[in-house]
Amino acid sequence: xxxxxDWDDFRLVQAIAETGSLNGAAEKLGLNHSTVFRRLGAIxxxxxxxxxxxxxxxxxxxxxxxxxxxxxxxxxxxxxxxERRLAACDPAPAGDLRVATNDxxxxxxxxxxxxxxxxxxxxxxxDLVVGNAATNxxxxxxxVALRATPAPLETLVGRRIAELHxxxxxxxxxxxxxxxxxxxxxxxIGYGEAMRALPVARSLDERVGAERIVYRTSSVVGQVEAASxxxxxxxxxxxxxDVHPGVERVGAPYEIGRALWMLTHEDxxxxxxxxxxxxxxxxELSKRKKLFEGGGP
Length: 297
What we know:
This protein has 297 residues and is α/β, with parallel strands linked by helices. The protein contains twelve helices and ten strands. Helices cover 42% and strands 25% of the residues.
């Protein structure tokens, strides 16, 4: 009898291989742990071989498991390419549009721009995917991405909006108690572990030192709210700090080597809803170039 597999079998094996655990695969696929465990057992019984070695560090794919995961990756890429080309045939701006962005843009800048876009294109449903992790546009994790990056990937097309400048900010009450942010007793807000690889986080640790960082958070929104609550000085994007009523800028803005880009996959650039989004948001964001580059609101 020939072996019979379902596409979901390959997706499950791929998810376990990527995350290294049943819990990670369950979260990725929207399933519970027991379902993933049971389905993996059924797939291994069908194959007649182990697909994963259960190690202390996690689930490590065997040779057969790695082959299955690699095939799933190829199948997923093929499906995504078909979806992108299908989306590019839209006759008019309509349907779902997934936009990947970060928490600061989603909180402080995009809502009003989204409202204006919706008035012009009421048939387009916007879905903001908020997070700091890189989004895979090839897999259709999103249709468009608004990202701070030194340079986009070659497979992506789009528009460079502006250089992103940062500055130090603090609540006026804290500034009155600590006029000099570089004084030994001046408290600072640092970035949490999830953001420690960012250039601004590394430069902040070098400037301030661990002993003066009294509070950490892995969210820029959390940073500005903590600064507004008078916890300490914070390094923030100018487009956030300059419009927040609870903080004021301390010192001149500086560059971090990243620009704001609006990007889509090259296969999607002819989609009607993507073209409409890129045109409208590109114009609206470009109007705010001065804000992004530290020139004030």
